[in-house]
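ok trying again, last paste got cut off:
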Amino acid sequence: MEFELSQEERIAAELEDEREQTLKIQLRQDEESRRRSLEPKDPPKKKKLKRELRREALTRLEEAARTQSDFNEVVAWWDKLAENRERRERDHEVLRGDVPLEYGAVQEGTIFPASLCSPFWRELCSGYFLNIIFDCPYEMHELLADDFLTKMIFELKEDHKELFYYKVLRRYSSTALGAVLGQTDRNIRKKWTRLMKRMQKKLFKYLTDRKKAKLSLTQRETAFLAQYRESALDDGKDGW
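nice, full thing came through this time. structure:
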């Protein structure tokens, strides 16, 4: 009996020791967890976007530029970025192009009345008010973004403004315009030819000065300079 009691006491003592060891381990783990929670945490690393990496690369390229070729490469980078920006902006622009404003109107008012199917009303309903506000011979220069062209159109005489407006924006023929203005189509053609020669001469001088100053020209402007020089050499006059 004494042997059995001593065996039970030994087992109870071992269980008590095991519980004490488990409690110590638990206390040690809790203390370690509390200590880790009190330590300052490093901020999470932010992933850099592709455009940020490109911006940093361009900045390093600018700071490291020393030679002419290095600077040409930097300029080429900026030109590419400008072209991308302009392309994105053009996606949100409503451009009239070289067609009359009435082009593309739905015929006979299939769904809506014919008056509401014209590009005029479509632009008005879309919120593009500039084409509507400045759609007249005396305000059309506000539709241009180039300062020189704006000034050149603004300085035209009133009859020349009307002629330019109906021929360029409204795409009237000489006969139709003559009927509107009460003139013959021959007189309209003469006035239009003189007006075009005068405007082309001013434009040629302006683009020539830009080229001498080593400023950039568009492909259309470069083609205009070449054609104007060729026509002036052919007939010995001031161009077309």
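cool. Residues 62 and 74 are 6 Å apart (CA to CA). The mean pLDDT is 80.
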